Automatic annotation (TrEMBL):
Keywords: Hydrolase. The keyword Aminoacyl-tRNA synthetase does not apply. The keyword Transferase does not apply. It comes from Corynebacterium variabile. One of its GO terms (molecular function) is hydrolase activity, acting on carbon-nitrogen (but not peptide) bonds, in linear amidines. Coiled coil: none annotated. This is Allantoate amidohydrolase.
Length: 110
């Protein structure tokens, strides 16, 4: 994946995320809300589109594995972030790190 393709993918993914939780005083993506549910659906769809395995633990944390779950001692790359935001956070608060993790998978898969 070249830089232009990565930028196009980033912009398309961000356009989907940018409208979730918009509020006049900032972004509101609180846990356990309709916005949170929308973000979780987005995450699951993005992971599934990349052939990733999605797992949700008993605390509601979502993980996606590319290439299957690793065995103990396997080498790998881990990236992490959060989907929710602080009260009236900036639009980059939270999902940007998740989006970049998916974009990294795209680049590595290319």
């Amino acid at each position: 994946m070249d830089a232009d393709s990565a930028l196009t993918t980033f912009r398309a993914m961000w356009a989907e995320l940018d409208r979730i939780g918009v509020h006049p005083t900032g972004t509101r993506r609180y846990s356990w809300t309709a916005e949170d549910a929308a973000l979780r659906r987005w995450f699951t769809a993005q992971a599934s589109a990349r052939g990733m395995e999605v797992h949700t633990d008993a605390n509601g944390n979502i993980r996606a594995w590319w290439g299957g779950r690793p065995a103990d001692g396997d080498a790998g790359v881990i990236t992490g972030s959060h989907l929710d935001s602080v009260a009236d956070g900036g639009k980059w608060d939270g999902p940007l790190g998740v989006l970049l993790g998916f974009l990294a998978v795209d680049v590595l898969a290319a």
